[in-house]
Amino acid sequence: QGKQKKARKYAVMKRMISLRDERLKEKDRAKAPVKKKEDPSAIKEREVPQHPSCLFFQYNTQLGPPYHILVDTNFINFSIKAKLDLVQSMMDCLYAKCIPCITDCVMGEIEKLGQKYRVALRIAKDPRFERLPCMHKGTYADDCLVQRVTQHKCYIVATVDKELKRRIRKIPGVPIMYISRHR
Question: Name one Pfam family in it (predicted).
Answer without folding.
Answer: Fcf1
